[in-house]
Amino acid sequence: MRDWVQPAALALRFLSRLSLPGEDMARFGRDLPRALMFFPLAGALLAGLTALVLLGAAQVFPLYLAVLLALAFDAWLGRGLHEDALADLCDGLGGGRTPEDVLRIMKGSAIGAFGALALGFAVALRVAALVAQDDPWRAALVLVVAGAVARLLMLAVIWRVPALPGLGGSVAGAMDG
Fold first, then answer.
1. pLDDT in the model for residue 171
2. Are the CB atoms for 86 and 118 separated by under 8 Å?
3. Mind listing the pLDDT tens digit for each residue in 139-155?
4. How much is the average pLDDT of 109-132?
5. Smallest Cα–Cα separation from 158: which of 176, 143, 146?
6. Does residue 112 contact residue 95 with C-beta atoms inside 8 Å?
7. Which of 18, 112, 132, 147 is the most exposed place for a label (fewest CB within 10 A)?
8. Distances in whole angstroms, Cα of residue 139 to Cα of each of 5, 70, 128, 168
9. Quick one: which of 35, 33, 30 has its CA closest to 20?
10. Is 75 exposed, middle or buried (0-12, 13-18, 19+ CB in 10 A)?
């Protein structure tokens, strides 16, 4: 039974700022392939924490403010990992003329116009989708399901798209299909 604890903890640590007691980072390389299978479960758990923030905030604020607070918490909890990747991708694809340009732009630490616009639209779309639920409990359920599905889709992309150097490449290198 203990065989799954370390990989599950690693999945949570990799996808968030959570640090669980007893983690052994020396086992990172060995446990990463097994941790990948816990990504959807970790995504659901992390989104569940965001859903709790949403439900709590909805007791005090209108739904649109509760959603904004929950999404701000979600970005904090996830260390902005997904937002950073989206901005890098959009900056690279929007500003690069050659594959080398795209990679150079994506690796840069600055955010450009395409990345800023993508982040703005992504947050606006998430807010609109959650507020359209008209019910905090339904919005919370959408958050949890989306958290699991997003991490499952992340695995599908890692599995099928050729890896680039960097964090994503190291994760892709650990995946055995």
1. 65
2. yes
3. 999 999 999 999 998 88
4. 95
5. 176
6. yes
7. 132
8. 30, 11, 11, 30
9. 35
10. middle
Looking at residue 132, what is its pLDDT? 97
Structure tokens at 2: 């203990």
Q: Are 119 and 59 in contact (CB under 8 A)?
A: no
Model pTM score = 0.84
17-36 pLDDT tens trace: 887 665 566 666 677 788 88
Q: What is the mean pLDDT of residues 95-115?
A: 87
| Residue that has been written with the tokens 């732009």 in this structure | 105
Two tokens, residue 49: 């924490």
Burial of 21 (0-12, 13-18, 19+ CB in 10 A): exposed
Where helices occur in the chain by DSSP H, the ranges are 5-15, 28-35, 39-58, 63-77, 81-95, 99-107, 113-131, 136-160, 167-174
Answer with the residue of higher pLDDT: 29 or 126. 126
Cβ(131)–Cβ(63) below 8 Å: yes
d(CA 20, CA 136): 29
CA 46 to CA 96: how far, in whole Å?
34
What type of residue sits at position 101?
D
DSSP state of 21: T
